Amino acid sequence: MAGSTLSLPVIGLEVFLADPTSAEAIVSCKAVAAALQEHGALSIRDPRVSEADNGAFVDLMEAYFSQEASTKALDERPEVGYQVGSTPAFTEIPRCAADDECVALVERLLPDDKPAPFDTADAKERFFWRVGTPPPPGLATQFLSLHAVPVVPPAFADVWQNQMDAWGAKLLAAVRVVAEMLAVGLGLPQDAIAGRTDHAPHLLAPTGSDLSGAANARVGRVLAGFHTDLNLLTIHGKSRFPGLNIWDAQNHKLRAKIPDGCLLVQAGKQLEYLTAGHIKAGFHEVVVTDDTLTAIAKQTEAGRPLWRISSTLFFHCDSDSTLEPLPIFATPESFARFPPLLAGTQVQHELGLINLSAKA
Ligand SMILES: *[C@@H]1O[C@H](CO)[C@@H](O)[C@H](O)[C@H]1NC(C)=O
Ligand SMILES: [Fe+2]
Q: Which of 103, 159, 199, 231 has the most beta carbons within 10 angstroms of its beta carbon?
């Protein structure tokens, strides 16, 4: 079990939004870079995003995931690696399971820092909805499956696009500013990282985990096994059910607590690539804990659905852009460890390793 609860640094975006060049803004930018380096994660407060916005989106997703499995199955698109529409439970396999180096790392962890078992497919379900601006015509992507036609669930046809786009746009705007602040915090031009994301296949990626019934509401049940995210940065609002554990750069396991009205941002593999490991992709897992059971009791009393929703967005680099160490991290050694690679190729390789597409 996680020993300690971590209150991640909370960084407000308002100072930077008001004037990105102010001395106060630069201090915040350095704090963003330091938090990602130390914890692989941070909490942010964006004055443009409210807890009510997150709540409205979580309500929609509770209704979506509460549908019959056979109804949700019509929204599956395995032929494009599930990159749009629904991914059923017990499909995605935790990334660590496919990685000998990761398995060896887990063996070295202290008992209190060990993750829950990660050798079977995740109990969570997910829905992928692409947000942002597609590659411009004439500059066509060579990664068509990452830019596939969106899926609109029939029962939600009248509201789906508006609500998904509304929450997606808020998270996208927030995380883009974090990418700008990170670049400034690293001593780079504001657009050095965010400028690589303008035509990327960003995915609004809410997960839903069924917590109804004694078998599902069992302490230790793994909803999402130990892994890092394959993308650049991940952002999400607060879930109604606790259970997220994160590992800091020293590989200590911590329970993540997100203050009301805040968003959690985590570093992914593409950021590790661009910074040549200066910022590491943050390990995390979602497991049912005593606190989850307390929330289940509370939601049951309130007559709410027992689905744990995470209101996640995966922020990506442009598929046809090259992942390689940024100039300040460029050395012969870093290029040997992180050789130039198209972001779309990296994504497809990772999707194979987590059982979302045929191994590339
Ligand atoms: C991999 O995904 C497929 C569905 O695409 C699923 O049927 C299969 O059980 C998954 N593999 C494992 C080992 O869980
Ligand atoms: Fe994740």
A: 231
Separation of alpha carbons 39 and 19, rounded Å: 27
- 343, with CB counted inside 10 A (0-12, 13-18, 19+), is buried
φ and ψ at residue 274, rounded to 5 degrees:
-65, -30
Q: Which 8-state DSSP code applies to residue 82?
A: T
Give the span between the Cα atoms of 282 and 259, in whole angstroms: 19
Task: Tell me which residue of 220, 266, 224, 275 sits closest to 247, measured CA to CA.
Answer: 266
Closest to 87 (Cα-Cα) out of 319, 342, 312, 360: 312
Q: What is the pLDDT of residues 80-117, one digit of tens each?
A: 999 999 999 999 999 999 899 999 999 999 999 999 99
- pLDDT tens digits, residue range 302-326? 999 999 999 999 999 999 999 999 9
Ligand 2 ion local residues (Cβ < 5 A): 229
In 234-278, which residue ranges form alpha helices assigned H by DSSP? 269-274
Q: How far is the CA of 75 from the centre of ligand 1 (A)?
A: 17
DSSP letter, residue 187: T
Q: What is the CA(24)–ligand 2 centre distance, in A?
A: 32
* Residue 194 tokens, joined: 């965010």
Q: Which ligand is nearest to the CA of 126?
A: 2
Q: Which two tokens stand for residue 313?
A: 């967005």
Interatomic CA distance for residues 34 and 219, integer angstroms: 33
Cβ atoms 193, 279 nearer than 8 A: no
The pTM of the full predicted model, rounded to 2 decimals, is 0.96
In Å, the largest CA–CA distance within the chain is 60
Query: How far apart (Å, rounded) are the C-alpha atoms in residues 242 and 75?
Result: 28
DSSP state of 45: E
d(CA 179, CA 174): 9
Q: What is the Å distance from ligand 1's center to 121 Cα? A: 8
The partner residues of 155 in beta bridges, in order of sequence, read none
Taking CA atoms only, the protein residue closest to ligand 1 atom 3 is: 91
- Which ligand has the minimum distance to the alpha carbon of residue 312? 2
Question: Two tokens at 227?
Answer: 């892994």
